[in-house]
Design a protein that fits this description.
The two termini are 33 Å apart. This protein has 14 helices and 15 strands. It has 385 residues and is an alpha/beta fold. This is Aminotransferase class V-fold PLP-dependent enzyme.
Amino acid sequence: MDVGKARADTPGCARVAHLNNAGAALPPAPVIEAVAEHFALETTIGGYEAAELRADAVEHFYGAVAGLIGARADEIAYVENATRAWDLAFYAIPFAEGDRILTTTSEYSSNAIAYQQVAAAKGARVEVIPDDANGTLALDALEAELAKGGVRLVSLNHIPTYNGLVNPATEVGRLCREHGVLYLLDACQSVGHLAVDVAEIGCDMLSGTGRKYLRGPRGTGFLYVRREIARTLEPPFLDLTAAEWRAPDGYEIRDDARRFETWERYVAGQIGLAVAADYASALGAAAIEERVTGLAAALRRMLADRPGITVLDRGERPSGIVTFTVDGHDAAAVKVAARGRDVNVSVAQPRTHGYDPHGLDAAVRASVHYYNNEEDLDRLVAALP
C-alpha cells in the first residue's frame, strides 16, 4: 500500500494523529469533494434537480457497496446510519412467544436494548453465549444451543466497540446455515477494516456505517439483506419508496433490499459513501486489513513496554482497535491530554456495553487506520502520562 499517497489524500493527517477511526475516520479528498460538489449543486439548481442530474452517481452506490462486500446490488439498501440499518432488519423479523435470540457477551448496548424490547413485547428470550478461554464467542457453546432448537436469530457484532477482538463470523455463519437459523451481523466496525464477504460469512443480514473505517460521510450507512431473505421480512415502517400504493386501500412492497429505504435521504452522503466504497475497493480489502492489524499490533507492543499501562485486548484474531488503561489516570483525562498534543483517541466504557458485569467503567481506545503511520503511534505514546 502507498501510505504516502493515502496520507496525501487525507487533509486531516497534516493536522492530527487521528487514532479514533472506530469513532469516525478522516475522509479522503475524493469523498470530501464528492459531497461538497453535490451540496453546492443543490444550492445552485435545487435539491430535486440535483438528484435528477446526478442520478447515475446516486444509483452507483448500490453496486459500489455490493462489490465491496461480495453482495448483489439489489441486496443493498441505503440507510442513514448503521444503528438504523440494524434496527430495520431486526424489527422486521416476526418474533413469536418462546423464540430464542442468541448473542455474545460483548454485544453493543443499542442492540441489547432492542433485544430486551422485543423480548418484553413478543415473549422471546435473549440468551448470551459464553466466551471461550481467549475471550471470543465460544463456538462449541453456540453449536450446543442451536442444537436445542427454538432459535429464531443469532445476532452478534463482528468487531466489538472495545476489547480488540474479531468475532468468528464465518464459523458462526456455517453453524447458522447447518441449523437453518437467521443470522444478523453488526459490521459497523469491520467493513473498510477487514476483508468482509457476505457469501463467505453466510450472514442473512448485515449492517454497516459510512463514518468509521469506510471513511465516508457521517449520517450514512447501509443494510445488506440476502435476496431470498428480503422477501420474507416486512419492514417496521413503509413509504412510497419501500412500497407502491395500490389505491384505494392496498400496497405492494418491493421484493428487494430497498424495501428498507425511505424516499427522503442525504443524497450528497449517498454519493460520498459510494466514492468511499470505491476508494476502499481500489486499495483492496486484504491490503487494508494487513496494514490496519499490523499497526495495531505494533501499538500494542509499544504500550506493553510502558510501565503502568495495561492493554485490555483479547481474542485470537486482534483487530485495529486497541484498548488500554494507564495506572493512576482516568481515561477521560488521558484523552484530553492527548488531544492537547493533537492526538485523537476516545474513551470506551465496557461496563455500558455487553453482558459482562465485571467490565471496566472506562478505558482509552486508540483505533488505527491504514493512513496512520509509525509517527502517529509514537506521538500517542509520548502523550501518555
